[in-house]
């Protein structure tokens, strides 16, 4: 793979960081009057030592972190990725061995102090807004997915920061950071994947302690890294005789208390351990309140998880695009570099504009998550925060669905640019292709994301609906734009056509067309919004114009499908 700093070598990412993102707005929200810096001045508590005390300091701090992540990702992880993938994993009796090269590059992340990226300073984390976390994830996923998943799994424990008792947070989060824990999200079971409300693992209480019994499937890094510590955050049924979501609670189960009975042989992610886990009367520590596991905690965690995959999609697609662009400049056919052949140039330019759109969506989604989560963390309840939560509940499934589906399409194109060489294991495209394929399946399939978004889009498009208000506010910011007006008009027709269906199943079956149309419109708007603050407005205007044509074509195609019923 290309060897360079993946933060500084990416012009679009640099433009977002340096020009497009509204840092004062984000920083004021996240830093809450620079309360952490004030806490450090008062107490000298080392957890707050790095807390910025101004917008400029915060921006500089984020830049240093992204620079460091970009350096490790692009100079080291990317160079080891192919060997890591080829070596893969070895399973023997409750134990999984990861490639030594993977352990070595993860050590570089650890030496740079990056693992606690997901946590707030209060619990020993780096204290980063969601948009910085998303950008850091993008850089790392561009280098290697298996390594990034193993390195970043600890971030799943962000759910504890939100829902565990203060005592449990202090017990677990600093320990996880200090000892480099892996964290598995124990949701799926052999018979229940999308259908989480039916999960069957049981938790019973004896002498004031909880014990879990059941089988969890597809548990990423539940094994830990070569003997290193791990926990599983497991969803289990506590209410006697209950069915459905309300009987489910959330538990911390330690690695020593469960058995890894095997790992999956998979299409991709060859060095990411997907474990089958047996819980046999395994001690578990209840997180938060009994019965809130799925309905409050897992659901509450979803917006962050969806943005994680949205960033993964951008990272993988960027890897494919950058590699394809380099190859197309070097590969000569018919006496010229293939980048000069119109059919190849067409694939490359589609990749460029789609990645620009995906990155806009990632940045917007992450910013919106902060707009309701930061006030929530600071104990502020406001109508504005509630509005942003509603928008987040619609834009995050859209981001997850769009970026994961598009990442698959773009890597397919990138492989095509490599011709036969792309199909071999000599280059990185085959691995990227295999690794991309899971993004639209795990953490909720595309179909489940569509189910999650459709209500917010349809109800939100009512006369006073929140999605309409959100679209109107973006439209107002960008001013008059004929291309966008055409897409919006067509989108309104799409919504109307869907509303006219009387049969519930027909509605469900045609939801994708509505959600895809909503995604195209919002992306077109976000690309224009980004251009307002960008330096190279002329280049962006060209990308935007081509993207809007694609959007109009897609939304019009969906309208035709919906009208046909
Ligand atoms: C590599 C890998 C890593 C994973 N890591 C984890 C992990 O760490 N923790 C964890 O808990 N799980 C993990 N998973 C599981 C993953 O989240 C599930 O595979 C995923 O949610 C889909 O569930 P399923 O495989 O049971 O498919 P199913 O739920 O059986 O779905 C099959 C098909 O039916 C569709 N479908 C199902 N229900 C609906 C519906 N209501 N509406 C529309 N379409 C529907 C789906 O979209 C899909 O196309 C992992 C999976 C893999 C492959």
Quick overview of this protein structure:
With 565 residues, the chain is an alpha+beta fold. Helix content is 60%, strand content 12%.
Key traits:
single chain, 565 residues, alpha+beta, Butyryl-CoA Dehydrogenase, subunit A, domain 2, Butyryl-CoA Dehydrogenase, subunit A, domain 3, 4 domains, two-stranded antiparallel sheet, 20 helices, globular, binds flavin-adenine dinucleotide
What is the mean predicted local confidence, pLDDT? 96
* Number of DSSP-assigned strands: 11
The percent of residues in helical segments reads: 55-70%
For the biggest sheet, the summary is:
7 strands, mixed
Shape: globular
Ions, cofactors, ligands: which are bound? flavin-adenine dinucleotide
How many domains make up the coordinates?
4
Low-confidence parts, pLDDT < 50 over ≥5 residues? none
């Amino acid at each position: 793979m290309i060897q360079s700093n993946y933060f500084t070598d990416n012009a679009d990412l640099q433009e977002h960081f340096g020009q497009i993102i509204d840092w004062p707005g984000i920083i004021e929200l996240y830093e809450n009057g620079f309360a952490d810096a004030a806490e450090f001045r008062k107490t000298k508590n080392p957890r707050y030592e790095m807390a910025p005390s101004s917008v400029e300091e915060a921006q500089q701090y984020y830049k240093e972190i992204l620079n460091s992540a970009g350096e490790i990702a692009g100079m080291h992880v990317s160079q080891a990725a192919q060997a890591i993938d080829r070596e893969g994993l070895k399973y023997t009796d409750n134990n999984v061995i990861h490639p030594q090269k993977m352990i070595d590059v993860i050590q570089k992340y650890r030496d740079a102090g990056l693992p606690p990226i997901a946590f707030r300073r209060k619990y020993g984390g780096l204290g980063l807004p969601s948009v910085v976390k998303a950008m850091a994830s993008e850089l790392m996923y561009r280098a290697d997915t298996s390594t990034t998943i193993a390195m970043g799994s600890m971030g799943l424990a962000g759910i504890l920061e939100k829902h565990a008792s203060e005592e449990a947070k202090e017990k677990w989060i600093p320990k996880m950071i200090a000892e480099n824990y892996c964290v598995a999200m124990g949701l799926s079971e052999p018979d229940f994947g999308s259908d989480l409300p039916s999960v069957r693992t049981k938790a019973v209480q004896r002498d004031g302690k909880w014990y879990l019994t059941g089988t969890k499937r597809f548990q990423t890094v539940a094994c830990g890294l070569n003997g290193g510590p791990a926990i599983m955050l497991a969803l289990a049924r506590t209410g006697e005789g209950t069915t459905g979501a309300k009987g489910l609670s959330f538990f911390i189960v330690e690695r020593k208390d469960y058995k890894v009975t095997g790992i999956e042989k998979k299409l991709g992610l060859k060095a990411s351990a997907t474990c089958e886990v047996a819980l046999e009367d395994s001690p578990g520590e209840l997180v938060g309140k009994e019965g809130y596991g799925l309905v409050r905690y897992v659901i509450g965690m979803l917006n962050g998880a969806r943005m994680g995959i949205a960033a993964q999609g951008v990272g993988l697609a960027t890897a494919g695009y950058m590699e394809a662009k380099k190859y197309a400049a070097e590969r000569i056919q018919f006496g010229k570099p293939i980048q000069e052949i119109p059919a190849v140039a067409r694939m490359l330019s589609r990749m460029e504009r789609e990645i620009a759109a995906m990155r806009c969506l990632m940045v917007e989604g992450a910013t919106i998550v902060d707009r309701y989560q930061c006030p929530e963390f600071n104990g502020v309840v406001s109508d504005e925060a509630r509005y942003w939560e509603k928008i987040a509940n619609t834009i995050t499934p859209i981001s997850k669905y769009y970026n994961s589906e598009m990442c698959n399409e773009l890597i397919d194109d990138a492989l095509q640019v490599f011709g036969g060489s792309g199909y071999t294991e000599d280059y990185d495209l085959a691995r990227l292709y295999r690794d991309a394929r899971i993004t639209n399946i795990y953490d909720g399939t595309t179909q489940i994301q569509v189910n999650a978004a459709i209500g917010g889009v349809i109800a939100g498009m009512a006369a006073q609906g929140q999605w309409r208000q959100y679209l109107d506010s973006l439209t107002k910011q960008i001013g008059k734009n004929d291309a966008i007006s055409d897409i919006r008009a067509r989108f309104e027709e799409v919504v109307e056509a869907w509303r006219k269906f009387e049969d519930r199943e027909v509605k469900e079956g045609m939801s994708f067309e509505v959600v895809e149309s909503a995604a195209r419109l919002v992306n077109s708007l976000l690309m224009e919004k980004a251009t307002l603050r960008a330096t190279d407005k002329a280049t962006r205007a060209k990308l935007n114009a081509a993207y809007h044509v694609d959007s109009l074509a897609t939304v019009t195609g969906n309208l035709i499908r919906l009208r046909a019923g």
